[in-house]
Amino acid sequence: MPLSRTSRLKACFHGLSRGSRNQTRTLHRNTLTTFWTPTQSKKKSSTGDGVHEDGHDLLVRAGFLRQAQPGIFHTLPLGLRVLNKVETLIDKHMQSLGASKLALSSLSSQHLWEKSGRLDGRNSELFHLTDRKGAKHLLAPTHEEEITNIVKHAVHSYKHLPLRLYQVSRKYRDEARPRQGLLRGREFVMKDLYTFDLTEEHAMETYNAVQKAYKAFFDDLNLPYLVATADSGNMGGNHSHEYHFASQRGEDTIIKCSACSMSVNEELYVGKHDATPETPAGKHDVAVWAGPILRKLEKKLTQPQSEQEGDHVDSVLKVYYPQDCELNLHAIKRLHPNLETSNADPQKWLDAHQEHCIHLRDPRISESQCYLPHVNQSGSEPLRVTGAPFLLTKARESDTCPDCGARALHLHQAIEIGHTFHLGSRYSEPLEATIKDASNEPIAIEMGCHGVGVSRLVGAVATMLADAKGLNWPIVIAPFSMVLVGTGSNSADEVVELYDHVMHHVRNISGNMDFDAVIDDRERPLGWKLNDADLIGYPFIVILGKAWKDRKAVELQSRRLGVKEEVGVEDLAQRIISYSQKL
């Protein structure tokens, strides 16, 4: 007599589970009775409604983090699993570059920072320490000086290059205003890759290889990201790129052209103005901004203390620009690097320094407009107005691309999660890290440094993917790929057999898929367990409900994909593998 479909499914399940039990006797099974997940209930507002939660709020409520102090967080077991998976993914791509992993001390020598020229009195974000013997140290926000010093004493010949070293470690920055949880903290986890090459040509080849590895790393996360040309800032060097997740909570603005490959951080954006009969200068109402240009005074022994080293106002810059646009202070500082932009009281500077006023106009403003009485209410009539060689205002949506000329610019608020820098000899020269080339001549090593904000990435992913129900994770960094949720009518053995079956067949069918699962064996109602699972953000939820009892089928859920379907045991592993490609 032929077997019914239910009987075939039962036979299939029990046969497979016996086979998988034989092969997974030493398998460690994760269970939520033994894995600590201190989730919390959602807070109510004064009106009784749920309080709006962002990604960071959910990381705390879902038991990934707890705040110790402003900008400092304890990582709990779920959060540690995510961080460890990000680090494992980093290891994979750093190994593809032939990089060796190390761990540098969190205490950095202040002397090395002084020697490199980065300790210039303006580093207010550094944590300073003095030991009992008076030696001065820093809690390292980055390790360029230390790694350069190590290589200086260990590498002496061009035959030992190229060299690629990386670490994943905690870093420290005394943020004046920590905010947005892991996105702007005082303690954070970073991946830093340091590269050492013989020539600039070799260093650029390394840089391109690193960029390729970075793109492969971000591709593995299966999330959209932006790559933009960036300012190197106080890191030094003249070639760098940033890697971003687009998010309305981001503090950066990326300007990208949809018609060509132009993609740049707003800090580097410079707009062009090609005057035509349709767009002549003088068609805009004029706005005026003013700010001081500072002059650095060097310390002299004959000067009184009050006049010694510091910044002093040398002159005032007065800028004329279109009133319907927002001023781009980064563009102006390209022309006047010593411009102080933090003061918001232009009239104060104009009144005090009228005799030392420099006049600069946006190319869309005609020179004659700068002389109009209502424009020069301060009485500081310009003797000479310099026309800027580029626009002095920020880009706007659908503006003209300065590279290809198409009206196809798009602005994206974004969270920076990685940065690659070509440093050149910025650190090797002052720290005297030289090697002998083939002619036995000493030359400074060409360096690069390349970072990924590991904890920042976790916060950014939480911010990007969170919804009203909770967190969501890319499967490659999720704390667990799947949670199995049984009901009171399921025996513990049934849930364990299904766990072993899924784990065995997903790994066998997929070949190299990194897949893990956890059993929710807590004595709680089914509805509570499902809400908890949604809050934590497992990519897959498998429920052993009524269909399991009737016909050995489960309900498979994936909130990110909008999946909620009944699946037979014999199809479950293949269905999970298929959906995983989209997660």
TrEMBL record:
GO terms for molecular function: ATP binding; proline-tRNA ligase activity. GO terms for cellular component: mitochondrion. It catalyses: tRNA(Pro) + L-proline + ATP = L-prolyl-tRNA(Pro) + AMP + diphosphate. Its EC number is 6.1.1.15. One of its GO terms (biological process) is prolyl-tRNA aminoacylation. Residues 79-474 form the Aminoacyl-transfer RNA synthetases class-II family profile domain. Keywords: Aminoacyl-tRNA synthetase, ATP-binding, Ligase, Nucleotide-binding, Protein biosynthesis. This is proline--tRNA ligase. It comes from Pseudocercospora eumusae.
